[in-house]
Amino acid sequence: MTDKRAALEAVLMVVDRPAATTDLALAVGMPVPEARRLLEQLAAEYRGAGGAVPRGFELREIGGGWRIYSHPDHAGVVERFIRDGATAKLTQAALETLAIIAYKGPITRGRISAVRGVSVDSVVRTLTGHGLIEEVGVEESSGAALYGTTDLFLERMGIASLGELEPLTPHLPTGQALEEIKEQVEESPQAL
Length: 192
Fold this sequence. Notes:
Blueprint: H1 4-14, H2 21-28, H3 32-47, E1 57-62, E2 65-70, H4 75-85, H5 92-104, E3 107-108, H6 109-116, H7 121-129, E4 133-138, E5 145-149, H8 151-157, H9 175-187
Antiparallel strand pairs: 1-2, 3-5, 4-5
């Protein structure tokens, strides 16, 4: 008889997106409640619960399913590894556009362009090609396509919803800083 716990781990090692409890239960041939119990036990064990040794990875239920992720404590090491070995990184323009869509979406290309001050057509195509954004509807007043983030974006960010994104407010300049910027622009507009 196959060790169903080990079978669950084996399946979790190869999934490329979160797998639903029902799909995992079906794959290893067990009832859904038993699969959920084993998944929760594995997640606790990987966190170091009950005296177990914490791991460099964790099992999380995100986006309607389960997936193994690297542990947040090791994010710096993983980031360096990926950054140093990455061949296809997103450009600064793509990252800025992606941030606008994540925080302001659903949003049209025209509004994204207005925020960035440049055309974003090619960047939107690139982000769509990477599966990070998608058309999510049409703006009633203009008929323009509305763009939003995808489940893949949430998964790559390690969050279950956009509501988990860090708030922007702490990163915005204060009233005093805005006044200083305004004074600098008035004194020397070419400095921008």
